[in-house]
Amino acid sequence: MLQTTQSISLSGVSTIDGVQAATFSTVVSKGLSYTSVSTQITDQDLYEKNKAEVRKDRNDFQTAADNLSDSLDSGSVASSATSSVASSE
Fold first, then answer.
1. Predicted model pTM
2. CA distances (Å), origin 46, targets 13, 16, 39, 62
3. CA-wise closest residue to 85 among 71, 56, 65
């Protein structure tokens, strides 16, 4: 008997004045109670000068991942779904 698991990769970029400061990624799977977000700082100086904004973007990304996870659990996301998250600069 075939058993499948649905998961969706989600990624995001935090930019400051058009320059990438950090990237975020996660894989959201049905039935997981917690979604771990990976953060990579791509411009250390820019990050240091704009920590509050980058952290806000990270928190917004976590919220988007949580919402996607909830959608998977409720069955409201189709198996071929993709998601994009817009963040402010």
1. 0.77
2. 13, 8, 15, 21
3. 65
